[in-house]
Amino acid sequence: xxxxxxVSLVDVLEEDEELEEEASAVLAGSDSDxxxxxxxxxxxxxxxxxxxxxxxxxxxxxxxxxxxxxCHEGHDLYELYTKRNFRCDCGNRKFSxxxxxxxxxxxxxxxxxxxxHNFLGVYCTCRRPYPDPDDQVEDEMIQCVVCExxxxxxxLGCVVPDCVELQEMICESCMNKNPFxxxxxxxxxxxxxxxxxxxxxxxxxxxxxxxxEKVDEVVxxxxxxxxxxxxxxxxxxxxxxxxxxxxxxxxxxxxxxxRLMELQAMPQKRxxxxxxxxPPAWRSKLCSCxxxxxxxxxxxxxxxxxxxxxxxxxxxxxxxxxxxxxGHDPLMSALDNLNRVQQLEIIHGYNDLKTxxxxxxxxxxxxxxxxxxxxxxxxxxxxxxxxxxxxxxPFYCS
Length: 398
Fold this sequence. Notes:
One of its GO terms (cellular component) is cytoplasm. This protein is of the alpha+beta class. The protein is built from 11 helices and 9 strands. The chain is globular and about 85 Å long.
């Protein structure tokens, strides 16, 4: 028999705190109370697709965070993480019989929205649901920064780098649709992500970092990987600076030449196959001359010149919003409106309750018992009775 795996309360609390932080990074950047529709095509926001309202071959549609709470509570929702330049569809023509509770004056459709198979609850080139009950392989999912689909690490056609959290990825399909990106990849992409041969693509799970359970998505077999604080030390060896030409006669910087053309004139050593991982700040190395800007615009890739477009920038914004909200804690605001005696009474009461709850739980830990909801309810009922006795006690002044 195998030993039963044990998990300490500390482990549970630490994991819960980590999951809360990740959820806050995704959700705090979006408004949970107001529909985002009046803002137009939001640069980046948390989105959901409602299988309850648009199932059985219905048109793909996406709803904002607030509408997922207020208009689709209890529905079967697909979590889409974040997507760029999207306007909330809730209550428009695609939702027959459902009206948005938060904003009524909406157009029939949002013509500039872009949809993919994620809105139908399937992901990756394998078109599987997430989480996938039939997939026994522990694998992480990574989002392409161009098509914004989520792909399994083993289906990327390359070895996933160790510091993947710090890097953006463009899938092989998007690279092939925009061949000029291979030129950048040959000089700017993360080195060491060797391309897998065709026969290795389906058997490369051992080369892929194991997925960790995270909560923004469903806590099953793993997570869709989000980005963390970028560190220049990781993956920077492939990021080469391209010098600007200067006007030698005047000693001044001349009009910049096309960086892409300069790179195209250099030897191309990278095989044009598999997904490409890019190091931090790689977007700042892309050419922004008029010709290249027009090319990016035609391809619908102008956002690649915008470093604030990244998921990392969005998450950092969410974390900043969370910190500001914590700074305006309603409980602390209420305490500020009380006099000094009342503040001390509440603080002492809170500390006493915390101490008694800790002692109460320690008895279960010492005896190896499981704490049930009935145990917790009885504890607070006991506290309530104790409080009533204290309040009813006569007061004597000596």
